[in-house]
Here is the input.
Amino acid sequence: MLNKCKIAIGKKPSKKWASQYAKLDGSNLVFYKDKKASIPTKQDVHGKVEQMVCLVNCSVSKDSFDKTSKKNTIVLSNPDGHLLLQADSETSMQEWFIKIHTRIGELGGTPDSPDTPISDSGTLERKGKIKKSLESWISKRSDKKTLENKGIYKENMFGGEIKQICAKEKSKVPTFVTKCVEAIEKRGLEHEGIYRIAGSMSQIQKLRCTVDQGEQYNLDDQMWDVHVLCGTLKLFFRELKDPLFTYALFDKFLKGFLSEKAAERFKQIKSVMDELPRHNYDTIKALFKHFCNVMDLQKENKMAAHQLAIVFGPTLIWPDPQTTSMQLATSLVYQSQIVEFVLLEYKNIFR
Here is the structure.
């Protein structure tokens, strides 16, 4: 069991800690309510997942003193924030540090230095054992190809890039997107608040984990309700390394949208759409066709173009994080408006 506490970038540490059972599963650190919940079943191949943390692009450190006064705590970090992990003893903490540090290294990451000082409370003998254990783990690290062959590492679908995903699958649109849209439409688009109402986060994480591990999945299975499917689809686009509308073209989309005359606005947006990488263009075309189908039933589902754009604006288009804060604040206002414009002009843009 580990106690954990999440810290968002720029925020103060929360006083809310949760005690959960944890285990490493491929490229993920997975949390469960208890050990029993981690047992796979026919319905839940990964058990009842509470939270799943992808270790790709993460680092781990024992230097937690500036974040918490709790003992036996390590810090798992990624670009979004930190996760404090507290073990019940120093020995257990060291073991977790070694496991996580090694797995991050196996995944091609750059974990913090393994020479992080060990607490002075330990004996020299114990420090020596821990150091030898760590050196042994590091020396046994395999290269990426070996890990792929063993099934330990797979290129993640979530957090990837549209171009790479489609190239690997030899598809125009990511297969998961196509299957997810089909499954959602089979369940019916008349559900009120579709895409707006949140699905079960544990189920969303479970589905994500299944897809990321490259396992066979059946989205027609009734265990995935419509809101879980919608939530997972949103998560897929939200976690892309490069947004669907791409960092490179964000300024052009913004400039085109701000054109004063309607005819010029359409001309500019259409022109920028044609500059998109082919797989991004095809994916937007397929996704927005699905949105049009949702809009056709807006009397029942209460999701017109404006509502869909509010939900998907921040998910599909955002500026490069390196943009200055003033530009960022100004540009974020237009995310939903650009998505709404493309949605309303769908037939003219993609004819």
Observations:
- The longest strand covers residues 18-25.
- Strands lie at 2-8, 18-25, 28-32, 49-54, 59-61, 73-78, 81-86.
